[in-house]
Specification:
244 residues; single chain; Rossmann fold; three-stranded antiparallel sheet; binds zinc ion
């Protein structure tokens, strides 16, 4: 059984890398952001709590996140292991996690702030069907227009320079102490998040002593659009995880 944690700033392609690893190794991908989104969409009690918090302009609290993760992990449907994304978020949770689970590795996707800015500010969202675009890597065929439904592409409200600067500062403040705890246990592999998705995945596997990604696995999973091209063209996930 393999148990991994994946950490990375938004725009680092964390969700894509986690899904690629999970699909190939039969791991359960536990993404805190996805669990929250599902609960909001399905109008659960938890969803209402998350919605209220976000409507007030606050971040979902660490306690709530911890409860969700504990619940999810006690389902024990992860026969071959899991990769967790969006947790732990503070030092206490990191300690709890280390005590409760035998972790095999922490994947840290490293992306300089300047690249985060470039990637995040290039994100667009279809105002009709909600599909994500990135003007750098997955631009639409007709500028400003959704390939699928033809609606106008818009920027997310919180994808501004100012809001991003705040998020980046918060991210580093929260993440650095967590990374420090994992580093003391020598669990952390730091991987450059700037190359294409497949190249990053191979590097992760090499560093974790895992078998290389099977050829064509990327395209089959449908997680990336251009990253799988044979000529090594740099690419980014077409559908970036809003929470990653
Ligand atoms: Zn659309």
């Amino acid at each position: 059984m393999r148990k991994y944690v994946i950490m990375g700033v938004q725009g680092s392609g964390k969700g894509t890398q986690a899904r690629m690893l999970a699909a190939d190794l039969d791991l359960v991908h536990i993404a805190v952001g996805d669990i929250f989104r599902w609960n909001v969409q399905h109008h659960t009690k938890l969803g209402a709590q998350v919605r209220r918090t976000m409507a007030a302009g606050l971040l979902v609290g660490d306690e709530l996140v911890e409860g969700v993760v504990r619940d999810r992990l006690t389902q024990h449907d992860w026969n071959y292991g899991f990769i967790i994304d969006g947790f732990p978020r503070n030092e206490r949770q990191a300690e709890f996690f280390l005590e409760s689970y035998d972790i095999d590795g922490v994947i840290h996707l490293d992306l300089p702030d300047s690249d985060v800015r470039r990637r995040v500010l290039a994100r667009r969202l279809c105002s009709g069907c909600g599909v994500d675009y990135n003007l750098i890597a997955s631009s639409p065929r007709v500028p400003g227009q959704c390939d699928a439904c033809g609606s106008a592409l818009v920027r997310r409200e919180d994808d501004t320079e100012e809001a991003l600067a705040v998020r980046l500062r918060e991210y580093h403040e929260k993440t650095n102490p967590v990374l420090a705890i994992f580093r003391r246990k020598e669990y952390v592999v730091t991987v450059d998040a700037r190359p294409g998705a497949e190249e990053i995945q191979q590097e992760i596997r090499k560093r974790l002593n895992l078998p290389p990604l099977r050829r064509g696995a990327v395209a089959q999973n449908g997680v990336t659009r251009r990253a799988a091209s044979a000529d090594g063209t740099r690419g980014e996930p077409a559908h970036q995880d809003a929470a990653s």
